[in-house]
Fold this protein.
Amino acid sequence: MLDILKLDVFQDKLKVLKKNQKSIKYSIEIENIQLEITKKKIKNINLRICHPEGQVRISAPLNSSQERIIKFVISKLEWIKKQKSQIQNHPARKPERFLDNEIHYFRGQPYKLKILINNREMFVKLIDQQIILNLPRNSGTEKKRFVLNDWYYEQLKSLIPPLIEKWEKILNVNVSSFHIRTMKTRWGSCTPKTRRVRFNLELAKSPPETLEYIVVHELVHLIEPSHNNRFKSLMDRFYPNWRICKKNLYSYEIN
């Protein structure tokens, strides 16, 4: 293993950035990827790819050995490379002005916006890495936002039911209804008593695995309403990468 890694694994080579009773911070390099390691009082090793430059940050229990951390990183290495590449190759999200060539996301992929102005019906189409937005003349920013969000709504409305059906069978639960809403602080919510679930409209812009993570998260609440150890255990059992999805999804701001 070590012959393919560039590691500062010996104590005299570790760059200790901060050390106190609660945490230890240092950095290592694996296959030309710089990793920021933080050991602190937690139970599990967690991984996060951060915006805007794709920094890789690992948090691990204080008693974790260097070997354990390295093995964890190696097991996630291909995924780390993929995520870093996506972040570095895709422009950072900026406030939406709905102008030609502005970047908008769908299913985790960036698309350039193309505005067409005429008196025909309003529509949105996905063509050749572009989101085509057809509007009447004198359509302002809010009109553009409304039409594009309506398209996102229809896309999400068709993407969610197959995931709900899939996970209802796996989890042996039943959803009475689902709703798509604009939410400022949540990606989803669930009312176990009525078995109703709600999803943030912004999920239409997220990668498929993060949408599925939120669906699983909310349906698991039909079994365990709180975020206690039982809930986490169920998530570990049925969707093992849920912590990675959570870290990366919550690194985005909700518009």
Q: What stands out?
A: The first strand starts at residue 15 and ends at 19.
